[in-house]
Amino acid sequence: MQRGVSFTVPRTRAEASRLIDELRRRPVDSAADRRRDVLAVQDAMATGRDDAARVREELEVTGYGASATWKGGR
């Protein structure tokens, strides 16, 4: 979070050590930058902006749980 990057969980100790070294070399983002990033993500999630890939259940899916299917025979 302090470095302003995301990553996947390493699979091996060697990958973890390499990732830790890379993160330590990166400069620390300011608290204000981190806060702006968090607020931007929260705003985007609340408004649905940039969310074209979301499945809109009321338009695309019928049924519930294991019996759910795509509308239109997809």
What does this structure look like?
By secondary structure, this protein is mostly helical. The protein has one domain (13-73). Helices cover 46% and strands 5% of the residues. The chain is built from three helices and two strands. A two-stranded antiparallel ribbon has the order 1-2. A hairpin with a 6-residue loop joins strand 1 and strand 2. The longest helix is centred in the middle third of the chain and has 17 residues, at 31-47. It is flat, with a radius of gyration of 20 Å.
List keywords for this structure.
74 residues, mainly alpha, two-stranded antiparallel ribbon, 3 helices, 2 strands, flat
What is the first-to-last residue Cα distance? Answer: 40 Å
Oligomeric status: single chain
- Low confidence ranges: none
Into which percentage range does the β-strand content fall?
A: 5-15%
Task: Tell me the number of structural domains.
Answer: 1
- Give the topology string: H per helix, E per strand: HHHEE
**What is the number of beta strands?**
2
Q: What proportion of the residues is helical, as a percent range?
A: 40-55%
Class based on secondary structure composition and strand pairing: mainly alpha
Supply the number of helical segments: 3
Anisotropy-based shape = flat
Profile the largest sheet. Answer: 2 strands, antiparallel
Rg computed from alpha carbons, rounded to a whole number of angstroms: 20 Å
Mean pLDDT: 81
Q: In what order do the strands lie side by side in the largest sheet?
A: 1-2
